[in-house]
Amino acid sequence: MDILLLVGGLLLILLGANGLTDGAASVAKRFRIPSIVIGLTIVAFGTSAPELTVSISSALKGSADIAIGNVVGSNIFNTLMIVGCTALFAPIVITRNTLKREIPLCILSSVALLICANDVFLDGSEENMLGIADGLLLLCFFAIFLSYTFAIAKKDGDTTNPEKEPLQEEDEIRLLPVWKSALYILGGLAGLIIGGNFFVDGAGGIARGLGVSESVIGLTLVAGGTSLPELATSIVAALKKNPEIAIGNAIGSNLFNIFFVLGCSASITPMRLTGITNLDLWVLVGAGILLWLFGLFFGKRTITRIEGSILMLCYAAYMAVLICNL
């Protein structure tokens, strides 16, 4: 039953995210909102909606380890597995601006989470917690990130934006009737909410049935499930000879997850970190640094197939450590 809840919840989340994105994009196009705004907000939200739904549902139900593990695990999965897997299909060229701006910003977001989640070490507190103040701080970072992204996109005309491919899909946005757009939006929201509840209940039940912590389930099963949209997008992009989308996809999703998803979740209710350790957070920071080093020093700003294999092996090693620590 728990597996059915998990799978059914994930399907509802994916369908809900797709419906909400299509409906919102159609409304935005009807009101002549620029395609760049649609891409940087609605498309970005659509691919990260599963993480947002699961994390907020988990936080409200008191399953903070699933909420935080979902984000940390998803970001590690994005950086190591999605980029690595995409590089196996086709080498990924990294632009100079991505190497100088976006990847360091992604590393900074991971470091910010590491600092916010170390109350015991830094403040001598009794437990590590992401409180309301931490959530509001992360949301402030998200606002700065959005302002920066819009400024860069406006200045460069999308020519150097790592997420330029999704922004060029204006012609693919369907202009739906108003009633159908509203139906898609409402139906998508309902799918996200109901699916999120099912998914969290199923994941929690599986964790209890297997005798493992919710943090491990969040870092592995939940993280992999909610990262399916990013994985599918990156692989399809590689098959269409646009593997560079994987970098923008991973970086954009990682920033959105930490600054917005965790920011919203922690702002709604404080979240205690009981199963998420510094090992997980340092792996998150290290994954971003490794990606940056590969782009900076090897292969002339290109993630080669060998480097992609190394990234995937690093993820496999991390999974092995989690399993051994059960």
From TrEMBL:
Subcellular location(s): the record lists: Membrane
Q: Name one GO biological process term.
A: intracellular calcium ion homeostasis
Query: Could you name the Gene Ontology cellular component terms for this entry?
Result: plasma membrane
Q: What keywords are annotated for this sequence in UniProt? A: Membrane, Transmembrane, Transmembrane helix
**InterPro entries reported in the protein's UniProt record:** K/Na/Ca-exchanger, NaCa_Exmemb, NCX_ion-bd_dom_sf
Membrane topology term reads: Multi-pass membrane protein
Under Gene Ontology molecular function, one entry of this record is: calcium channel activity
Membrane-crossing segments per the record: 76-94, 103-122, 128-151, 182-200, 216-239, 251-269, 281-299, 306-323
Sodium/calcium exchanger membrane region domain: residues covered: 3-150, 181-323
Q: What is this protein called?
A: Calcium/sodium antiporter
Please give the organism.
Answer: Bacteroides muris
